[in-house]
Amino acid sequence: MTGFDVATWTALGTWVLVIGTLIMMYWQTRWQLRLNSANALLVLRERYDTPAMRRARGKFAQHLLSPGGDPPLLDVPRFFELIGSLTHQRALEERMVWSAFGGYVTAYYHRMVKPIDYIGTWRKEWQDPLIFREFEWLHSRVERIDRQKLGARYVATMDNSEEAVRILQAEVRHQEPVV
Q1: CB count, 10 Å around CB of 152?
Q2: What's the pLDDT score for residue 177?
Q3: Residue 3's pLDDT band (boundaries 50, 70, 90)?
Q4: What is the pTM of this model?
């Protein structure tokens, strides 16, 4: 064998160029998806902090802390259902969602199932087993990340009812934005 001829070198160079281009496109696409996720989370965070949503959060938190009567509008669990759906479809990155909303997801979900299982009740009343299924999924993902971050300490904090109560009490106090 006498080495590579021009055609072989050209073919090899073309393949290197194609593979390099594909790697670069993959990298760029991945970063674009992360930036889109971050931008979407910023918009969702702004929505979460609007005066109307703060009032809804405060009223819903008050209901969860002092159950009685019908719950106010379900804006808060619907919001987390949307976040869960977007995260489940990978439009939002889990760790970014955890960072932006993790404590709220845990607090609201925990109080929506204990001491009264509102989610289970609504599923029976409305005969829809999928009510707040994405919120439930989101809670499980947030809990998994908490477990990863806290490690052995997570076992001690698994019953986060005290933390949930503190977060919801803060929601009640801050129904209006601080000016």
Answers
A1: 7
A2: 46
A3: low
A4: 0.79
Phi-psi region of 19 (alpha: psi -120 to 50; beta: other; left: phi over 0): alpha
Residue 111 near residue 164 (C-beta atoms within 8 A): yes
When mean pLDDT is compared across 16-20, 70-74, 108-112, 169-173, the lowest value belongs to 70-74
Query: How far apart are the C-alpha atoms of 134 and 81, rounded to whole Å?
Result: 5
Q: How many degrees, rounded to 5, is the angle at CA 111 between CA 90 and CA 102? A: 35
For helices 75-88 and 51-65, what crossing angle results, to 10°?
A: 110
- The 3 state secondary structure assigned to 35-86 is HHHHHHHHHHHHHHCCHHHHHHHHHHHHHHHCCCCCCCCCHHHHHHHHHHHH
Domain edges within the chain: 6-173
Cβ(174)–Cβ(58) below 8 Å: yes
Q: Do 116 and 67 meet the contact criterion of CB atoms below 8 Å apart?
A: yes
Q: What angle do CA 20, 21, 24 make, to 5 degrees?
A: 85
Cα 71 to Cα 22, 57, 82: the distances in Å are 52, 12, 19
